Amino acid sequence: MKKVDLNSDLGESFGRYKLGMDEEVMKYITSANVACGWHAGDPLVMRKTVKLAKENNVEVGAHPGYPDLMGFGRRFMKLTPEEARNYILYQIGALYAFARAEGVELQHVKPHGALYNAMVKDEELARSVIEGILDFDRNLILVTLSNSKVADIAEEMGLKVAHEVFADRAYNPDGTLVPRGTPGAIIEDKEEIGERVISMVKDGGVKAINGEWIELKVDTICVHGDNPKALEITAYIREILEREGVKVVPMKEIVRG
User: Fold this and answer.
1) Among 5, 40, 4, 1, residue whose Cα is nearest residue 22
2) Degrees, nearest 5: CA angle 132-136-139
3) CA angle 248, 249, 254 (to 5 degrees)
4) What are 116-150's pLDDT values in tens digits?
5) 18 — phi, psi (to 5°)?
6) pLDDT tens-digit profile of 166-182?
7) Domain that holds residue 96
8) Into how many domains does the chain fold?
9) How far is 196 from 202, CA to CA, in rounded Å?
10) Which CATH number belongs to the domain containing residue 134 in this structure?
11) In 3D, which of 8, 6, 95 has the Cα closest to residue 50?
12) DSSP characters for the chain?
């Protein structure tokens, strides 16, 4: 039986600002990527999100990003290797404090937004981020873009990897994501999203934005919690996967060291 993890970026509210549908989405996923206070999130939201994950038997991971609250971590920033390594370590440590307080173990780390995408193209940055994760705990799983160079580097450095695909994002022929703001980059129709998810999981690939077929390794599927239709789409993905005989489980049950 095929297995796959469903992850979502959560805990991205902060202060007076409410983002996402965390309470509702949490019921359908198996892994939560919790913002660590830099691109989004704050101490109150971090603890609340960890507690909510625990209540729903959802695994918890750190979702570190650039120190860019105003830009929601979606703007590129040039970091030195030392900065990147320590920024990651700092953010994992912050979330770990709340995880420990709630009696929860961290499962994974998924870089956020512009940092996630920059790692795919910048090997030095990728190595520095991975070093930060290894500094904290080499048993953590790195979530990264399916079939990317980042995955190869992480495995070479001794870190476990979960190959990630995106349910609601279009792909370029080289396997990278079509940038937000480009026409067709975001897919909103739930039936189309469902078809793409099944294609990725059962057929091992999907059509790129130009119609070319690209092969993808799939350990975990990202469903975005800040999409206006997040709840409807997430529930539908879970339903269609189970209908097709795919078991939805946390990534630690798929990725073995």
Assistant:
1) 40
2) 105
3) 115
4) 999 999 999 999 999 999 999 999 999 999 999 99
5) -110, 120
6) 989 999 999 999 988 89
7) 3-253
8) 1
9) 10
10) 3.20.20.370
11) 95
12) --EEEEEEEE---BTTB--S-HHHHTTT-SEEEEE-SSSS--HHHHHHHHHHHHHTT-EEEEE---S-TTTTT-S-----HHHHHHHHHHHHHHHHHHHHHTT--EEEE---HHHHHHHHH-HHHHHHHHHHHHHH-TTSEEEEETT-HHHHHHHHTT-EEEEEEETTB-B-TTSPBPPTTSTTSB---HHHHHHHHHHHHHHSEEE-TTS-EEE---SEEE--TTSTTHHHHHHHHHHHHHHTT-EE--GGGT---
For residues 189 and 160, the answer to whether their CB atoms sit within 8 Å is no
Mutual angle of helices 149-156 and 113-121, in 10-degree steps:
80
Cβ atoms within 10 Å, residue 91: 26
Which residue is listed with tokens 């129709």? 189
